[in-house]
Structures are given as C-alpha cells and as structure tokens.
Design a protein that fits this description.
By secondary structure, this protein is mainly α. The chain has helices at residues 2-17, 42-46, 51-64, 67-71; strands spanning 29-30, 33-34.
C-alpha cells in the first residue's frame, strides 16, 4: 500500500506539470508584420517565376502517375 501511495505522490505533481513545458510555436510579429524569412515558391526558384512552365511540369508529372493513361487497355 505504501508503494501505491508513493507512486501517487510522485505522479500527481508530474501530471500537473506536463503542460508547463510547452514551447510557444507562433511566429514573431513586429508592428503587425511577420518578422520571419519569406519563403520562395518553387516556380520562383526553379522556373524563374514562370508559372505556365511550372503548371505544365506539374500536369505532365500527374499524367505520368495516372494508371488509366499508363495501362493502355
């Protein structure tokens, strides 16, 4: 019985402290603006901001993944 009481005495404070260690995961905002680094989109990086070439590449890739087009029944 003593061991159960000891475990309860240890477990109750630990259960109460579990939520205290959570780290804030929101980005920093300064003067109403996001203070982080802007992420470039793929068409800006790989296709020199040519959206038409980007969408053509995505469409071709999706067509090659379509089993109905590849099977040729």
């Amino acid at each position: 019985m003593k061991t159960i009481a000891r475990l309860c005495l240890i477990a109750v404070p630990l259960a109460l402290l579990v939520g205290c260690l959570e780290v804030d995961q929101h980005p920093a905002w300064i003067k109403g603006q996001y203070a982080g680094k802007t992420d470039n989109r793929q068409q800006q990086v790989m296709f020199h901001n040519d959206k038409l070439a980007w969408w053509g590449t995505i469409n071709n890739r999706n067509q090659l993944q379509n089993e109905y087009n590849r099977a040729n029944p």
